[in-house]
UniProtKB/TrEMBL annotation:
Top-level lineage group: Bacteria
A Pfam family this chain is assigned to: ABC_tran
Domain ABC transporter span(s) in chain numbering: 7-251
Protein name as catalogued: Amino acid ABC transporter ATP-binding protein
Keywords: Amino-acid transport, ATP-binding, Cell membrane, Membrane, Nucleotide-binding, Transport
Subcellular location: Cell inner membrane
GO MF entry, a single one: ABC-type amino acid transporter activity
Species assigned in the record: Vreelandella sedimenti
Amino acid sequence: MANNYKIETRQLAKVYHGQQVLKSIDFSISPGEVKAVLGPSGSGKSTMLRLMSLLEASDGGVILLDGKELGVEVVNGRARPSTEIELARQRTRLGFVFQSFNLFPHMNVMENLLLGPTAVFRKPRKEAQYEAEVLLKRVGLIDHCNKFPSELSGGQQQRVAIARALIMSPEVMFFDEPTSALDPELVREVLNVMEDLADSGMTMVVVTHETGFAREVSDHVVLFNEGRIVEEATPDNFFSADAPLPVKQFLQHVM
Ligand code: ADP
Ligand code: MG
């Protein structure tokens, strides 16, 4: 599952109701890298993820995948916003896992996984089903493939959501507080799947309050505050006694 593309943002900006919630974000992630994004509530972490994964349009700056700008087409030398069809195609390269799982409640686990590949990629059902089985085994849920989301625990639903994102073979996986909605005893099973994914070489951006995950699994830790990246460091430096003051102040609140 090695990925080959670098994804980056340059001067990414977002304004809501006249308030600038993202201020010139330069963020980049290399193939196979795992970055943990930390920061107080309201600092813009989710907004950056939604923009980078093309779930929402930015108000400035660019998002580049392998050096090519996303969300924009150049026609006759002029840049113009991508069509909805083109955006949908680009989104398939960008996997997203939400805090609240967001499975389709009226579909069983298998159907949740098959929808993307069959409807978007027009893959034969048999082929997609084989891939779904491989992924459901990988997240430990093959025995639950006929169940509906409401019959699963939160941890199981989140593992299905991860498998559903992976079946599209994304270049990068975005996780927005994937364990924050879970009962404490279910957090580990989801983190284990994410660690396995990181070990397999997946490029991952993970917004999380799990400092243990940031410390042990990520290659870099990024700290957000008030719409800006205020620090980026290796876990060793980030969680060290010599970390800069904003890092220490933040960690004092969460640890
Ligand atoms: P975080 O994920 O770090 O908690 P968010 O990206 O969700 O932060 O939010 C950043 C700021 O943008 C907050 O002030 C929030 O209230 C505001 N915001 C986020 N989404 C919207 C939206 N859809 N409409 C208006 N304001 C929003
Ligand atoms: Mg958020």
